Amino acid sequence: MIQVEHKWIKEIPVLHIYDAAHATEKLPTVFFYHGFQSQKELYLPYAYLLAQRGMRVILPDAPMHGERSGNESETEQAIYFWDTVRGNIDELPLLRDALDAEGLIDTARLGVGGFSMGAITSYGMLAQYDWLKVGVCLAGSSYYGHFAKALADGVMKQGVEFPFDVDARIRELAPYDLSAAPTKLKNRPLMIWHGKADDVVPFQYSEKLYEALVEEDMSDNVAFMVDEKAKHKISIEGMLAGVGFLEEKL
Fold first, then answer.
1. What is the model's pLDDT at position 19?
2. What's the DSSP call for residue 125?
3. Average pLDDT score over residue span 90-101
4. Predicted local distance difference test score (pLDDT) of residue 182
5. Contact by Cβ (8 Å): 148, 130
6. What share of the chain is helix, strand, coil (3-state, %, to 5)?
7. Helix runs in the chain, H state only
């Protein structure tokens, strides 16, 4: 029986999903992240499928989202988008260490994944933490600097003023920018999925990363899946492929 447990880990609300038959075992574990202005509960289908295949799954709420949202407006969420992404990345070791202390995870078999903002988060985690074994990035961008500038320009065109120096904030993203140093992937398995008609996160970011990995002779463990018609929405085929990839590689 698949169990869904709500818990708080270091003040981070998460859903913890696992097969009850293996509740106290050290299992391969996936940390899966939701998209912008979404929340952890909407990604339970991924977690259920992964738990069926013997994995432990942690679905956190990102800062300013889900149970961690306050009275922020949509504009404020947009202004602090990259703070949210960085918050996710910086919190991952806290989640890992807490679960390890409970004896619940196999620390040699940890993976990350996500959709949209969650995929952007996952790219940054792969750039930061070499103890992650595998990643699945669905409709995201590893090009932090370029995408951050494009998003900021779009917000400013709407007449919104940022309460900080945008260029300085973008420079702070450099350590998380996998595109700037693709060798940080270190031949770890990575699945990239993207719809060509994506009107939120441009498909070209995924295409460009894959081409960079090919150029660096680092594409042997990379699966690049292109949906010719999809916009900014994961297809059933993409979801199942991501689950299968994590099952195989983790």
1. 97
2. H
3. 98
4. 93
5. no
6. 45, 20, 30
7. 44-52, 74-79, 81-101, 117-128, 144-157, 166-172, 203-215, 236-249
Residues near 95 by beta carbon (within 8 Å), at least 6 away in sequence: 9, 10, 12, 14, 31, 58, 60
Q: Which of 223, 199, 201, 198 lies closest to 210, judged by CA?
A: 223
Is the pLDDT at 91 greater than 90? The verdict is yes
3-class DSSP state for residue 3? strand
Q: What whole-number distance in Å separates Cα of residue 101 and Cα of residue 103?
A: 5
**Domain total of the chain:** 1
For the purposes of burial, counting CB atoms within 10 Å of the CB of 233, is it exposed (0-12), middle (13-18) or buried (19 or more)?
middle
User: Rounded CA gap, 231 and 48, in Å?
Assistant: 24
Hey, is 155 helix, strand or coil?
A: helix
pLDDT in tens, 48-83: 999 999 999 999 999 999 999 988 898 999 999 999
Give the chain's largest Cα–Cα span.
54
- DSSP, res 199: S
Q: What is the dihedral of CA 235, 238, 239, 242, to 10 degrees?
A: -170
Q: Which amino acid is at 60?
A: P
For helices 117-128 and 144-157, what crossing angle results, to 10°? 150
CA proximity to 44, closest of 76, 14, 1? 14
Range of the domain at 216: 2-249
Which CATH number does the domain housing residue 72 bear? 3.40.50.1820
